[in-house]
Amino acid sequence: MVEVSTSILSIKEGEEANAFLALEVAKTDYFHIDVMDGKFVEKDTYEKMFQNASYIKRISNLPLDVHLMVEDIKEAIDDFLALEPNIITFHLEACKDKEEVWKMIQYIKDNGCKVGISVKPNTRIEEVYEFLPYIHMCLIMTVEPGKGGQTFLTDMVHKIEKLKKQVEEQKLELDIEVDGGINLKTAPAVKKAGANVLVAGTAIVLAKDFKVIIDELKEG
């Protein structure tokens, strides 16, 4: 079954409360929290995302899907653990070595949270294979992280297929999440390739009816 994680990045300031409630009514599966520090990626959304995620936690029971695009992973984990997210995903590229990757996986798990690893478009998917049995989700970026509303990179479909094959070969229960340029046009290809959690931002929040888009993204 395909799930939808709605990125709140492009929700207009002042419209957050109404949008969060409308997204819950429209049955998004997760709120996707894009946490950026202005160092690992250009944009800095850290404070805004913490405030929005805190507000969501007060008004909604829907799970938080926290995506850390930061250099200091440990500090961000500590900050966002306070909000009891469903899952915290960090970037493989933000870790200086494999030892740090293992440490972050264990640290998130030790704090009672699911863990995901994300890879940028230029990172070979093979680099994440050894960690797959120990995590709950792998997030494939289908655009360069740090900017909303980018165009989907079509060659990432093959990357999703390779990951799906590896998951099946290792007989793992692992969510494959895709993030970047996901809309009604690009969703069928990533679903066919094996993705089962779709992150969509502008495609949903700019629509007149959130539920129509979310339902269509979930189909198939």
Description:
This protein is α/β, with parallel strands linked by helices and 220 residues long. It has a single domain (3-218), classed as Alpha-Beta Barrel (TIM Barrel). The protein contains eight helices and eight strands; from the N terminus they run βαβαβαβαββαβαβαα. It has helices at residues 16-25, 46-59, 73-81, 98-110, 156-169, 187-193, 202-205, 210-218, and strands at residues 3-7, 30-36, 64-69, 87-91, 114-119, 137-141, 175-179, 197-200. It has an eight-stranded parallel beta barrel with strand order 1-2-3-4-5-6-7-8, surrounded by six helices. Strand 6 (137-141), helix 5 and strand 7 form a beta-alpha-beta unit. Helix 1 packs across helix 2 (46-59). The radius of gyration is 16 Å and the shape is globular. The model has no long low-confidence stretch (mean pLDDT 95).
Specify the CATH homologous superfamily.
Answer: Aldolase class I
Number of strands: 8
Through-space gap between termini: 8 Å
CATH class: Alpha Beta
Radius of gyration: 16 Å
Structural class: alpha/beta
- Residue stretches low in confidence (pLDDT < 50, at least 5 long) are none
Q: Assembly state here?
A: single chain
The level of helicity is 25-40%
At CATH's second level, what is the architecture?
Answer: Alpha-Beta Barrel
Strand content: 15-25%
Q: What is the count of distinct domains?
A: 1
Biggest sheet overview: 8 strands, parallel, barrel
Mean pLDDT: 95
Helix count?
8
Give the overall silhouette: globular
Helix and strand sequence: EHEHEHEHEEHEHEHH
> Biggest sheet, strands in spatial order?
1-2-3-4-5-6-7-8
CATH topology assignment? TIM Barrel
